[in-house]
Design goal:
The longest helix is centred in the N-terminal third of the chain and has 16 residues. This protein starts with 10 loop residues before the first helix and ends with a helix. It has about 475 residues and is mainly α. Helix 4 packs across helix 5, helix 16 runs antiparallel to helix 17 and helix 17 crosses helix 18. Strand 6 and strand 7 form a beta hairpin. It has 20 helices and 12 strands. The chain binds glutamic acid. The site of glutamic acid (GLU) has 7 residues, from loops.
Length: about 475
């Protein structure tokens, strides 16, 4: 690592470099992922910050796919990046692939070669297959400093870098050179990227100087850490954005949560829409130290965003998840709108993500709402004891009590008050247990009053009558 020296600095001076001091309109940021694997939330956090900063300043946000590693770059990863940004709603103003600019890279390299700023260096191969020639940068060996928007003033002596390699040959620049050439080409004013790139900055600044281009403002973001405080990675359980999408998370929740990884608004507010974030975000409130990714917090943020959605759209989505569950398809669930309309509002209270609905379906929680319960008549006996004839009498009594309730007022509270006195007198377990089994066929289910309300009067009475028939 290079000797880094942080000092206090004036923020307004560094966020507005001279050439953009008068108008935010010239601000350009970029997200420059390499499509060599599935990107995870830690990677997309960089995109979120670069996007928010560009939009806040009415600037441009560019997507550059850094696909120069021909062996490791894969089309499917590039497609996943495009799909993820699209789903998140992080729209970019321009997109290009680094590989499409190879002619321009070659021309820039040639120019530096002609000017003697880089040179062809004869190499002694260390192992078979190694190159005998590379292109090296003629290091002026000087002190350089830059003011990072997050980390403050950073100084270094480039002598320790030696004459570093910038290209294998004229057709194959290495990473540092291509990044700088492309950032100059795109007019990038603010390079917002992960802290792991700090050590690349000295070399890159020397290349900017050699190409006589203005040095952009750098903002190196703190690392996103896993729970064990190591760098977040797929191995540490980090997921791709599309995995969250498929697990029923909301894009606005992901953006909100990612914005909070390493940034805070300086207030108690934690729930932000994308537009709120565009208004509130600021680089000077980004912390220097690493920030831990918490799936639990993300789920909480998702739930808060779920609550903000209009009821109608939310309920349509819940219904979609219920009827697309494996159980619905396997058991041919009957889409009974009355049941659905009564079930969904209470269900919404219990979920953090739409994906929780699949988990509940797997646990059999909807079986009794959309299909007739299947159970053995012995289950109608409270604790397996007593006679079915006694159960039959009790179920008939429940039927007669419920029949008196007004069709329009068949709520859990009405059902409860209709049968409560009887249950108290006869024994709660003896009355309520067969009542529950008649409706759900399961010992573990919501209480019979809630079940009655959701199933509705007709279905409730029909199931109770069916139970009576089983009491022989
Ligand atoms: N392609 C680099 C990466 O995926 C980013 C380069 C940069 O932001 O300067 O880490």
């Amino acid at each position: 690592m290079i000797g880094l020296k942080n000092q206090k600095f004036s923020l307004s001076a560094l966020l507005m470099p001279e050439r953009s001091a008068l108008s935010g309109a010239s601000i350009v940021t970029r997200f420059a992922p390499s499509p060599t694997g599935l990107l995870h939330t830690g990677n997309y956090r960089t995109a979120v910050f670069a996007y928010l900063f560009a939009r806040q300043n009415k600037g441009k946000f560019i997507l550059r796919i850094e696909d120069t590693d021909k062996i490791r770059s894969k089309k499917e990863y590039e497609e996943n990046i495009i799909e993820s940004l699209g789903w998140l709603g992080l729209e970019y103003d321009e997109m290009y692939r680094q590989s499409e600019r190879s002619i321009a890279h070659k021309q820039s390299l040639q120019k530096l070669l002609d000017q003697g700023k880089v040179y062809i260096s004869k190499e002694t191969p260390q192992k078979p297959g190694d190159r005998t020639e590379v292109i090296r940068f003629k290091n002026p060996n000087k002190k350089i400093s830059f003011t990072d928007a997050i980390r403050g003033r950073i100084e270094f002596d480039t002598t320790e870098l030696g004459d570093f390699v910038v290209a294998k040959d004229l057709d194959e620049p290495i990473f540092h050179f291509a990044v700088v050439a492309d950032d100059i080409f795109s007019g990038v004013t603010h390079i917002i990227r992960g802290e792991d790139h700090i050590s690349n900055t000295p070399r890159q600044i020397l290349i900017y100087e050699a190409l006589k281009a203005p040095i952009p403002t750098y903002a190196h973001l703190p690392l996103v850490l896993a729970q064990d405080k190591s760098k977040l990675s797929k191995r540490k359980g980090a997921k791709a954005i599309t995995e969250y999408r498929d697990a029923g998370y909301l894009p606005e929740a992901l953006i909100n949560y990612m914005a909070l990884i390493g940034w805070n608004p300086g207030t108690e507010q934690e729930i932000f829409s994308k537009n709120d974030l565009i208004r509130t975000f600021s680089l000077d409130r980004v912390q220097k130290s690493g920030a831990i990714f918490s799936e639990e917090k993300l789920r909480w943020v998702n739930k808060e965003h779920l609550k903000l959605l209009p009821a109608e759209g939310r309920e349509r989505e819940v219904a979609h998840w219920i009827f697309n569950s494996a159980q619905a398809k396997k058991n041919n669930w009957n889409r009974e709108d009355g049941v659905l309309n009564r079930l969904v509002p209470t269900l919404i209270e219990r979920i953090e993500t739409y994906g929780d609905i699949q988990t509940m379906a797997d646990a059999g929680e909807f079986d009794y709402y959309f299909a007739k319960p299947i159970y053995d008549s012995k289950m109608l006996l409270w604790k397996g004891k007593g006679e079915l004839s006694a159960t039959k009498t009790r179920l008939e009594k429940i039927i007669s009590l419920l029949s008196k309730i007004n069709d329009k007022k068949f709520t859990a509270a009405d059902v409860k008050s209709a049968v409560w006195d009887y249950a108290e007198k006869e024994g709660r377990g003896e009355v309520l247990s067969p009542f529950r089994i008649a409706l759900s066929g399961k010992e573990k289910s919501p209480d019979p009053f809630t079940l009655s309300e959701i199933l509705g009067k007709d279905t409730t009475l029909a199931r109770l009558k069916k139970a009576v028939e089983k009491c022989i």
